[in-house]
Amino acid sequence: MQYEITLPADYDMQIIRRRVATKGHLLDKLPGLGLKAYLIRERGQEGSPVNQYAPFYLWRTAEAMAGFLQGPGFAGLSADFGRPPVRHWAGTALRPGPARELPPRTATRHIERLAEGADPAEAAARLLADLPAGPGLHSVAVALDPYRWELLRFALWERDAPADEQTRYQVLHLSAPEFATLAAAPAGAA
User: Fold this and answer.
1) Among 11, 68, 104, 108, who pairs with 156 as Cys (CB 3.0-4.6 Å)?
2) Three-class DSSP category at 124
């Protein structure tokens, strides 16, 4: 699941950094949450055209995701920034990387539209295999949006993200209360 809050070009991104520094730990033990990566993009950095707060979540169940969206945390975010549209996908694969024990510093998101007649499972396996699993990879998830017939690849890195990925983010904090359990289980909701 991901929502993107695009902020004005002159927005002081320290406000978001302070918000995450003071509130990020609140989800460090949330039941049902595989992980939440608190992500930002800053205009003019790493090729970003915008200032943006764009957290990404992996949930163990759709019920846990729905509970969060109906709960006080999301209500507070909506009160401060307006209720954002929330994208969600069905998880197809999750692979921990060699740097999974280290805190991630960057993240990448790649979205690919499936060609008419393409096998979604085959395309997901290719998308997962196409990502270099170098020593800096924390983890990678692949998920399917069956409404748009798009595949998502989301990766966390403990070092600078590869420059050739579509969208790159800074990771301000990672809450991962059930990541180990999620990584050991079949793919679920993203």
Assistant:
1) 104
2) helix
